[in-house]
Amino acid sequence: MKNTLLIAITLLFITSCSKTEDVIDYSVENDAEIQAYITDNNIDAEKSTSGLYYIIDEQGTGEKPVLGDRVKVAYKGYLTDGSVFENNTEGYDTYLDNLIYGWLEGLQYFNEGGTGTLIIPAHLGYGSRSTDDIPAGSVIIFDIELIYVNYKTENDQQIVQYLEDNDLTAEKSDSGLYYIIEEEGTGDQPTQTDNVTVAYEGYYTDEESFDSSDASGVSFDLNQVIAGWTEGITYFKEGGSGKLLIPAHLAYGNYYYNGIPAGSVLIFDIDLISVN
Known about the structure:
Radius of gyration: 24 Å
Mean pLDDT: 93
Order of helices and strands: HHEEEEHEEHEEEEEHEE
CATH class of the largest domain: Alpha Beta
Strand content: 25-35%
CATH topology of the largest domain: Chitinase A, domain 3
Number of domains: 2
Number of strands: 13
Number of helices: 5
Largest sheet: 7 strands, antiparallel
Distance between the termini: 54 Å
Low-confidence stretches: 7-21
Helix content: 10-25%
CATH architecture of the largest domain: Roll
């Protein structure tokens, strides 16, 4: 897919302002065009103070995005005459901050799983610049489905699939962590502030390893590591072993870290050697 519409705001600002003589305010005529479109199609839309019109068909039940969040959106984009300029049914994955203003604002009215329509005047889209099949000054309309916000729901599906594929049974905590106790151990059970020594191997759901310790393990304070470890190690007693299946929000979230891609599910085979 082209994904030509979902460009970074910084680029939009630069291209819009690089030649001030090209900048035209289409606000009045765009609003009249939108009002006519709404009337002709018997649409009930809300209008924000920015001039964006939006229709919420399904609010959704998941997380609502804010600046800095990653979103995945399926959409169809078209003009008021019905001509379609882009259609992405699989979903486009990016950060909310990277989108045109109409999307940046509009998606924040929905929760994960929500569907609806954004009717975007030119000053919240591409202004007085033409973009591929979109003429300068165009009102652009998007039917959207906010598939995911960040990785929580998506990661949970990935973990469940991994467990099914490998015939594993795991416990799930309230935080979204999955854990498998193979050997509970017989020694002390650590708290989240204890120092522990753990031997481990870390890998992704495709079994590719990204880190491991030697058999003697490494020592650390449990309140100084990723949240999935801080919580997960406390389910074991000294001498215990098992697996932690950690979604991104309990690891490195939306960010690339030391070779680990953003949004990754991390799996660890662990041996709790000692509670120090």
